[in-house]
Task: inverse folding
């Protein structure tokens, strides 16, 4: 890869684009199917991303879902956090709602990010964040295809939002950035690579991003588990966070079922 002088955001976009193109070609090749296709996609995209970062940013650390974690990253200010294939299941099933995440955390902040949606021919990144479209009426909330967060379902009912089931975390987050949805509330468990790039892009686009208790998203931690997140319009964040607290309090106060 040429262009070591390019800035980090442009590099993130180029790498995400390249990994996405390889994944599309691999799926179209017919060489693999089902779980074998997903495994091959994870492996090939990860190798490409790691090699690109080694060539272009050799002094930076990397945290990837598909690589053994190196604790030396905890001593670095700059850490690339990547998910080479977010939505492996969707990719292996021939669906469109999968993504490639390439992010750079600086001092624990999600500073740079690119999320490629290869089957849509689209990459959203922090260097050129899109303008937010008009809000949907009624509002739409993206949720997991298989395990929608109970808080999300309860809040959707309370505010009259339509649920929009979708695959990968990146696809769901970018649905909010693109205006296809208005809220992404997740509490079912994720890891740093699931959200770092999407959060960086969403924040650059002017959206509210936080944990569901309102606290900041922190990255490059020893424990890479990040169980929840909220992405929404800034003007709606306070009311949604209050609703989450109210629902959590009601749930904790309810008597246990026999």
Result:
């Amino acid at each position: 890869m040429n262009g070591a002088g390019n800035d980090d955001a442009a590099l993130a976009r180029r790498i995400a684009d390249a990994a996405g193109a390889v994944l599309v070609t691999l799926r179209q090749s017919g060489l693999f199917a089902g779980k074998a296709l997903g495994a091959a996609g994870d492996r090939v995209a990860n190798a490409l991303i790691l090699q690109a970062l080694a060539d272009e940013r050799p002094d930076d650390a990397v945290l990837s879902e598909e690589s053994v974690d190196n604790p030396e990253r905890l001593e670095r200010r700059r850490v690339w956090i990547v998910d080479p294939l977010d939505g492996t299941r969707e990719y292996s099933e021939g669906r469109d709602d999968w993504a490639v995440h390439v992010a750079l955390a600086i001092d624990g902040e999600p500073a740079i990010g690119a999320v490629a949606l290869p089957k849509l021919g689209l990459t959203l990144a922090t260097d050129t964040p899109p303008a937010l479209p008009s809000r949907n009426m009624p509002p739409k909330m993206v949720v997991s295809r298989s395990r929608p967060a109970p808080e999300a379902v309860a809040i959707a009912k309370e505010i009259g939002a339509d649920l929009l089931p979708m695959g990968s975390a990146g696809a769901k987050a970018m649905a909010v950035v693109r205006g296809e949805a208005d809220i992404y509330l997740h509490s079912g468990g994720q890891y740093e690579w699931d959200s770092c790039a999407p959060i960086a892009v969403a924040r650059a686009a002017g959206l509210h991003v936080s944990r569901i208790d309102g606290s900041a998203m922190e990255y490059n931690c020893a424990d890479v588990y990040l169980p929840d997140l909220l992405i929404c319009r800034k003007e709606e964040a306070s009311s949604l966070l209050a609703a989450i607290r109210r629902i959590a309090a009601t749930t904790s106060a309810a008597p246990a079922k026999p």
